[in-house]
Design brief:
By secondary structure, the protein is α/β, with parallel strands linked by helices. The chain is 25% helix and 21% strand.
């Protein structure tokens, strides 16, 4: 067990910050997020947080509480307890999440745990992956006369939830953690009447040095995506059609 968790507990907790690390590139974290990292005593970070981001807090004890879709990961109740334990041993605790902590980051469960334990906290937003992806490919998610609305969704479900979540009916769809579920998403959209030629852009490792952009149509996505080892974002809609 690390020194972080063996240090004697106190009766008065420190403060916890839920910080969004952004999509991966170190220079896409906010100024506030970087400052708080540089002052942290301990940082509990996700598996998708890059080494470049962690280099911003060399003084802090690092605890990996990685969560990767389809892979063995730390159970959420244990993560909650680790955050609480650290807060009663340190003044400044950071829970560092990829992207923005308030979007598909299970922040609600952690906030409930902090509030129940009487621990003060702050939230620092981050750039969510969809916005970094749109900037990288230089194509807006909305477009006048073509796409007036956008929906972010994920097919990942919690225990007890239906295996299939309802697909939103927006002009532009952005599927987080979409690598393994892309085939099912394409089939369901086609069955719902979405044109087969609808543009699709899948991006692996958004904003990182090894970013990979894959362009296809909705009918082509039924055949699946090329093998991907990193996180994949899938964007679907006419706004993503290549400009002449």
């Amino acid at each position: 067990m690390s020194e972080t968790l063996t240090r004697p507990a106190r009766t008065t907790p420190g403060r916890v910050w839920l910080v969004g690390a952004g999509p991966g590139a170190a220079d896409l974290i906010t100024v506030r997020g970087a400052r708080i990292l540089s002052e942290a005593d301990v940082v509990l970070h996700d598996a998708l947080v890059t080494p470049d981001i962690l280099a911003l807090c060399p003084q802090a004890a690092l605890i990996s509480v990685g969560k990767r879709s389809g892979q063995r990961s730390t159970a959420q109740p244990l993560i909650n307890q680790q955050i609480i334990d650290c807060a009663f041993r340190h003044d400044r605790v950071v829970r560092l999440k990829g992207g923005d902590p308030m979007l598909f980051g299970r922040a609600d469960e952690e906030l409930v745990a902090l509030e129940a334990a009487g621990i003060p906290y702050e939230i620092v937003p981050g750039i969510t992956t969809a916005f970094a992806a749109a900037a990288s490919i230089r194509q807006p998610l909305t477009k006048r006369g073509v796409a007036r609305n956008v929906a972010f969704f994920t097919s990942s479900t919690a225990p007890g939830e239906p295996d299939q979540t309802a697909l939103p009916g927006c002009d532009t769809l952005v599927q987080y953690m979409g690598g393994q579920e892309a085939i099912d998403t394409a089939r369901r959209l086609l069955a719902r009447g979405k044109p087969a030629a609808t543009p699709v852009i899948a991006i692996e490792n958004v904003s990182r040095r090894d970013e990979r952009v894959m362009r296809m149509t909705l009918s082509e996505m039924v055949g699946g995506l090329p093998n991907c080892s990193g996180p994949v974002l899938v964007m679907i809609g006419e706004a993503l059609r290549e400009r002449a």
